[in-house]
Specification:
Helix content: 40-55%
Structural class: mainly alpha
CATH architecture: Alpha/alpha barrel
Order of helices and strands: HHHEEHHHHHHHHHHH
Largest sheet: 2 strands, antiparallel
Strand order of the largest sheet: 1-2
CATH topology: Glycosyltransferase
Number of strands: 2
Number of domains: 1
Shape: globular
Strand content: under 5%
Number of helices: 14
CATH class: Mainly Alpha
Length: 303
C-alpha cells in the first residue's frame, strides 16, 4: 500500500486519513456548514486550535486543519498557523506528540523554504530514538513503543524526511505483538485498539504485511450496538477507537459492511448542537479531535 522508498508528503498515513475523511461530505449534507462554523470557532489568536481546556494546542491544531480541509475549506489563515509552528519549534521544548502534531500541520500548509522546519524537526525526532531500533514517547525508558514509533514515523513522513532504520522500527514493533494478534505499548501494559492500529499502519507504511491475526483482533473490538472499544476491558465504545480501527481495517482491504449501520448510528449519537462531535456517550464537550474522527468514521464507511 505504501513504500518506505517514497517518503514524500503525498505518500503517508495522514494524507490517506485526510482523503478518507473527505468522503464523509455526502453523508453530512447541511451539517457540514455547522461543523465548519464550530471548527473555525476553535482557532485561537495564538494561531493554534483549542484543546479541551480552551487553550491553543499543536495537537488539536492537526484536527482543526484537517476538519476544514476534509470539508473543502481554504485555509485563509495560513500565515498565522505558519508563524505559530515556527515559534513552537524554536522553543525546543516540544515532546514527541507535539513534534508529530507540528509536522502534520506543516505538511498541510503551502510549501515554504524560508524555514528549515523539516530538517530541524527530524533532529528533534531523532532524540526519541531508542537502542532497540524504535522510538519512545519517553526516551529515558530506553525501549521503543508502538505509539512512539507511530508518532516518529508519521512525523518524518509528513515533512518528507527519510526513515533512517525502517527495519529497526519494524523489529521494535514486532516485539510488542501478543500471541492472539493484539499489541501492547510496553511491558506490563494492557493490549489496546490504538496499539494494534498503530502497529498495523506502521507495517503498511514500511511495506510489511499486517498480521491477519491482528486484523481479526481489531474486528473483535466491535461493539454490537455500534462503535469500537479501546481494548478488551473497555465498557463502552469511543470515537477515537472507532475511527482508527475502521481506518486500519479499510486500509488493509477488510470489508466494512458489517459495521456500516452501527457505526453511523454511533457517530450520530455523539453529535453536539454546537456543531462538533464528542468522544463517547458520557462526554459532553465537543472538540476538533473527535470531530475529525467522526468525519473519518463516516468517510471510511462510504461505499
Amino acid at each position: 500500500m505504501w513504500s518506505s522508498r517514497t517518503c514524500g508528503v503525498e505518500s503517508n498515513v495522514s494524507r490517506e486519513m485526510l482523503a478518507c475523511a473527505a468522503h464523509a461530505r455526502p453523508w453530512l449534507a447541511h451539517s457540514a456548514a455547522d461543523i465548519v462554523t464550530f471548527v473555525k470557532g476553535q482557532l485561537r489568536e495564538s494561531g493554534q486550535f483549542a484543546n479541551r481546556a480552551n487553550r491553543g494546542d499543536l495537537y488539536y491544531t492537526i484536527f482543526g486543519l484537517d476538519c476544514l480541509l476534509a470539508l473543502g475549506q481554504k485555509l485563509s489563515f495560513e500565515s498565522r498557523i505558519r508563524a505559530a509552528l515556527v515559534r513552537a519549534l524554536k522553543t525546543d521544548t516540544l515532546d514527541l506528540l507535539h513534534l508529530a502534531g507540528l509536522a502534520r500541520c506543516w505538511s498541510r500548509l503551502t510549501p515554504s523554504k524560508k524555514h528549515d522546519v523539516p530538517g530541524r524537526l527530524a533532529q528533534c525526532v531523532a532524540g526519541y530514538a531508542t537502542a532497540d531500533g524504535g522510538y519512545a514517547v519517553d526516551p529515558v525508558s530506553g525501549k521503543g513503543s508502538v505509539y512512539g514509533c507511530f508518532l516518529a514515523v508519521s512525523a518524518l513522513l509528513d515533512v518528507g524526511m527519510p526513515i533512517v532504520d525502517a527495519n529497526g522500527v519494524l523489529a521494535c514493533v514486532a516485539r510488542l505483538a501478543q500471541d492472539d494478534g493484539a499489541y501492547v505499548d510496553g511491558p506490563g501494559v494492557a493490549p489496546s485498539t490504538n496499539a494494534a492500529v498503530g502497529a498495523t499502519l506502521i507495517q503498511s507504511v514500511l511495506a510489511a504485511e499486517p498480521s491477519g491475526k491482528t486484523l481479526c483482533w481489531l474486528a473483535d473490538r466491535y461493539c454490537s450496538g455500534g462503535g469500537f472499544f479501546a481494548g478488551p476491558s473497555a465498557t463502552a465504545p469511543d470515537m477515537v477507537s472507532t475511527a482508527t480501527a475502521l481506518f486500519a481495517l479499510r486500509m488493509a482491504g477488510v470489508s466494512l459492511d458489517a459495521y456500516r449501520d452501527g457505526c453511523r448510528e454511533f457517530v450520530s449519537g455523539l453529535w453536539d448542537d454546537a456543531g462538533g462531535f464528542c468522544g463517547h456517550c458520557l462526554d459532553e464537550l465537543p472538540d476538533c479531535e473527535h470531530t475529525f474522527d467522526a468525519l473519518l468514521v463516516l468517510g471510511c464507511l462510504e461505499e
